[in-house]
Amino acid sequence: MKYRSAILVATLLLTTAALPLHAQGFKPSKPIEFVTHTGPGGGGDVFARGIAAAMEKEGLMPVRMQIVNKTGGGGLTAMAYLAEKQGDTHSIAVFTGIWFTNPIMRKEAKFTMNDLTPVVRLVLEPAMVAVKSDAPYKSLQDFIEAAKQNPGQLKQSAGSLGSRDWVVRQLLMKNTGANWAYISFPGGGERIAALLGGHVNMMVIEPQEAGEHIRAGNMRVIAQVADKRLPAFPDVPTIQEAGYNVPNVPQVRGIVAPPGVPADVVAYWEELFARFIKTPSWQKYLADNMFEDGYMRSADLRKFGEQFSETTRNILKEGGVKVAR
């Protein structure tokens, strides 16, 4: 009898060890606050809502994911909001490249990505230089030449200082000697409306934001911010192919959690997203938005973040930007 009991106990222990991490530890018990630094229609907001919708469709989450928009400061407001939720097990956020960039540029930044808990990297994404479909600029060279002939008169619809569209502008202006105005808007919806309304002349935009407007014929893509041409735009050159020797500005999106989150919480999210990225809903989302799968777990994401910050710092310096860190 004792021998049988010992076998039973050992079997139970082995079975428990084989269970998924989330079965042993953390599992959400109330709605998840899903924080994004952009307003409705912005890249981060669209991305977060895309994840939440796909999670719900695939039935992977036991609770609802509630989008929380914390705009302002080019991501610094959202970072501070998350950082001050020390140990909160029911909050996560979408990070983008600006979460690395802005603290490098701005002394007033109270927190950096090193203060947050890395969870997963999800995608790497290209961008496009777009104009209104009836604009006179058929190529990036057309826009650059017009900007040279009218210094400071052309306008770029854009986000906050330090965002990818801002860095692209800095690099192009330094490379070409052209100059144009940078008009910052709080959300992606306003940026797009300004372009389509003819109030600005150009914008650097992510495919997910621009997709429906390109398909509807409201926007024209004149260059791609990518290492190679996207399959959807085989006839549109990259910035380098257009003749401008500037580095590509990397863009990345993923998930972070507040500081001090227990290991079992991170393990839960890692496992959940590892299953999520294989679902039909997510694969369709990647294809529809022309994203590259960039999945990376927590430990690797921390190493990537260090490298990304150094790369970004060098790009900022090359663009003539003074760094604070």
> Regarding quaternary structure, how should these chains be classified?
single chain
- Tell me roughly what share of residues is in helical segments: 40-55%
**What value does the average pLDDT take?**
88
> How large is the radius of gyration?
22 Å
Order of helices and strands: HHEHEHEHEEHEHEHEHEEHHEH
Which regions have little confidence, pLDDT < 50, spanning 5+ residues? Answer: 5-23
Q: Order of strands across the biggest sheet? A: 2-1-3-10-4-11
Compile the SSE list and pairings:
Layout lengths: L1 H17 L2 H4 L7 E5 L6 H16 L6 E5 L6 H8 L7 E6 L1 H8 L11 E8 L2 E6 L7 H10 L5 E4 L5 H13 L4 E4 L3 H9 L5 E4 L1 H9 L3 E7 L26 E6 L5 H14 L3 H10 L2 E5 L1 H21 L7
Parallel strand pairs: 1-2, 1-3, 6-7, 6-8
Antiparallel strand pairs: 3-10, 4-10, 4-11, 5-8, 5-9
Helix pairs in contact: 3-11, 5-12
Q: Can you walk me through this structure?
A:
Helix content is 43%, strand content 18%. It has helices at residues 2-18, 21-24, 43-58, 76-83, 98-105, 140-149, 164-176, 188-196, 207-215, 263-276, 280-289, 298-318, and strands at residues 32-36, 65-69, 91-96, 117-124, 127-132, 155-158, 181-184, 202-205, 219-225, 252-257, 292-296. α7 links the parallel β6 and β7 (181-184). Mean pLDDT is 88; it is low at 5-23.
Short description:
With 325 residues, the chain is of the alpha/beta class.
Main attributes?
325 residues; alpha/beta; six-stranded mixed β-sheet; 12 helices
